[in-house]
Fold each of these.
Amino acid sequence: MDRVTLPSPSKINLYLEVLGRRDDGYHEIASIAVLTELCDTVTLERRASGITIGVADPQVPSGPQNLCYRAADLLLRHCGITAGINIQIEKRIPISGGMGGGSSNAAATLWGLNLVYELGRSREELMCLGGELGSDVPLFFSQGAAFVKGRGERVEEMPALCPRWLVIANPGIAISTASVYGRLRLPLTSERAGIRMRALFESGQEDAALCCCFNRLEDVVLQAYPAVAELKQRMVLLGASPALVSGSGPTVFGVMKDADMAERVASTLVETGVRAVACRTLDRNPMFAVTQ
Ligand code: ATP
């Protein structure tokens, strides 16, 4: 195979607790994350040598700083391959939006490169390599829902949720994750609420679980960025239940009753200049459907 095109899904955090700061500078977290239908597209094509990146969005680096570049470089070196790869990225996931776009693109690159060069590496091995690139990368090797621990690299697969309609909205600003953690004043925290929420999901009580959605970073983001607070408020007034900041923001997602409601809420927000889309949570990772 010379070329492969892969969907590269985004994630939202239904639960995110920060448990403390680690000696290595990272934060210890506990999170429940689900993948969503809002996907970038990553296309990989063999080339004789070198790694090249094509991406139209000027906010995304096209050189060695791109996570896809680093992913390709890592796997090619790991497997002793001297040939190169061209990677085209079509962005739809908001950049620096708290939806893990770059990490997902890196996971898609590892998965795609494994196919294009017939490297025969297992999902577990690719996931482990992904952990060297960034804390969120391993999550994108899960099927749909996962309980995430450590600095984000310890991923415990959860049973898939029934697909839920969401509206994903972005006020058009980028927030660096490091700046949000920098502002966080941490009280005494525990992952107890997350464990309870996971148990509710695993026993099929999804509606009850969704009532427990929580993000420790949300208050920091809402206070520092009034546009995000306003967006969350609007989402609640439009009937989202719940509406929550994803990760370190500024993306706000709202859970909707059905497709009609999701389309209606998304169009209402779009009419006032907000970038918003209706989409569902995923119950399987679309990247795994691409096997040749
Ligand atoms: P993070 O928590 O890592 O900030 P995020 O989901 O909030 O993740 P991303 O869209 O992944 O945000 O981008 C974070 C940063 O990574 C941006 O500054 C961006 O320039 C850089 N980046 C590197 N590679 C990519 C990529 N393939 N797609 C998007 N951003 C990338």
Note: The longest strand covers residues 27-47.
Amino acid sequence: MFRIGTGFDIHRLVPGRRLVLCGVEFEFPFGLFGHSDADAPTHALMDALLGAAALGDIGHLFPDTDPEWEGADSIRLLEAVVALLRRKGWRVANADLTILAEAPKIAPRVQEMRERLAAPLGVPVDAVSVKATTMEKLGPIGAREGIAAQAVALLESVS
Ligand code: MG
């Protein structure tokens, strides 16, 4: 049995924060603002995984009112989501992410990001796709006010 899920996330770019996308840190004068490390593509991926299993969303699982998740490494949160899915009888088949960002350049780091996500997902690197697009300078993302990401993930029942 297969189940599919989608996820979306967006965070504001602010000065004085690290920029972490798919667990990979970028040299950039701005970072994403949020309670955790604000890794928007990893958040979108977790929501896709939870959505596929109809297990709610990361806001429900890791509330931003909980000091335990302050500054949290989103890759650790992803491990927790995958562990929850395993307990519910699911394994990840594949995932596909699109990052919407005017800057920095994502493409040179894509391989690193795929490897970073494949490990916690428990899948080979060729089952994780990371893509990026600019917004052609349109809207708040085009104006570099934030970075967004969308994800789709497929789960397969273990039994
Ligand atoms: Mg988020």
Note: Residues 2-157 form a domain with the 60s Ribosomal Protein L30; Chain: A; fold (CATH 3.30.1330.50).
